[in-house]
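Hey, I'm writing a tutorial for new members on how sequence and structure tokens pair up, and I'd like a real worked example in the thread rather than a made-up one. If someone can provide the structure for the chain below, I'll link this post from the tutorial.
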Amino acid sequence: MEYPLISEYREAILAAEDNFNELASLRPVLDSHGDPVMSSGNFAVVFKMRDENDGKLYAVKCFTKDQQGRDESYRKIADEMEVISSSYILPLRYLENELFVDSDQCDCEEFPVVVMEWVEGETLDAYLMRNLNDKYELEMLSYRFNRMSAWLLAQPFAHGDLKPDNILVCKDGSLVLVDYDGMFVPSMKGEKAREIGSPDYRHPLRNDSDLDDFSIAVISLSLKAIALNPDLKSKAETGDTLLVSEKDFRSPQDSKAIKAISNLTNDLDLATLLGIFYIAFAKNSLEAVSFRLFMTGKPKTPAKKKLKIAKPVEKIDTSCSDKDITEGVADEFGVIYSKDGKRLLKCKSNLKLSAYNIKTGTKVICDGAFDCCGSLRCVNIPDSVTSIGEFAFSKCSALQSISIPDSVNSIGDWAFSLCLGLQSISIPDSVNSIGECAFYSCSALQSISIPDSVTSIGEGAFYSCSALQSISIPNSVTYIGDYAFYLCSALQSVSIPNSVTSIGKNAFSESCKVIRR
């Protein structure tokens, strides 16, 4: 099939109201010269559009070259994206025969488009170069990419063409994956990949399975190394790549870049990521590697970045009544929010999502909001949330990891109780107390980081966390409640700071050695 020229698409988009079918309410966003805002790639051109009805911005992708099986692939991708809620991935619609174009290049007059939400941001490599002299921003970029990698490796689909150009960094630092032409979803099993990826981010022997694994290992290692030593990027001879290139993959023993990275292995996170890279290189897969190895430590905010005028914290009740739910507004997944959007009230009892992205602007996750949501494996909490209510994620047995943003100052009683699959969690330094039985019987929980902002650990907070092997209690803690670490059978010893003035009865298992410091 032949497709129109970019110039012909441009003319059609300028008269969008006459040429679109379902998208007739969209209008092109124009630059200062009156031209449509657009960008082009190997197979398509993307236009920035605004909906005349609600003002929302969209990206409309129009194809300039044919790809075998694209129509069916995009239908399958759209079906998969419909049930995934994540800030890393954008839902899309594939509309056949949507745009009328008067073209001299082809016999057809109507052509398919892909439409999705417009994301304001810059590519990862552009963001990195702009912040090359800001060590903290580089560390945060590495941290955020690793978080996204952990999430992506746990998904049943793959992006298929993971590289800095296809990763956008938004104004708040969050990451979004774009360009889904090469995406693989479970319903495509047995099909040949349409994209083979960039040579600098694909394995020399790439196959059609585990498409993202090697790309993730390469980008993660490069970002961490640059964060530790930005001069590596300044002196790199890799053109448009981050730090290592196809040349390095073909002869890693002779690679100057890999040798320079190896000199940084006194950093434990870098050493881990280098090991992951070698596994990905040897196996062409990270199947044998836990995605949790990408859950690297969050960089500490420099003092100068912490200096800001304190804003009053808005107090919002975490309780939720039947009336609240009746008057609430459900999103497309059946999750109910208050009318003002500040409170996430409740998800439907038969929610089948494996991942969910809580809406930006939400202040409170109400009591029991996701209680007994057994299919939920991953939740993205925006940095607008300040409180997590009682039993908010109780009995989410498939929940494996969760990142609590710095905005949260309150974790309610029993909030993550009986999350049997939860293995690790990082509590931000904005939290000052851990509620009663907050992590009760999280039997897979192996590690937890308690920040030095916490002053009290509630009764039964980690009761029967039988896989918990170590815990560091900071000097800020003054109170440890009854049964706080009771039946933590893997916990051999714990060091109690002198700041603790009250330890409740049976706070620790009988097998645990308690050391005062």
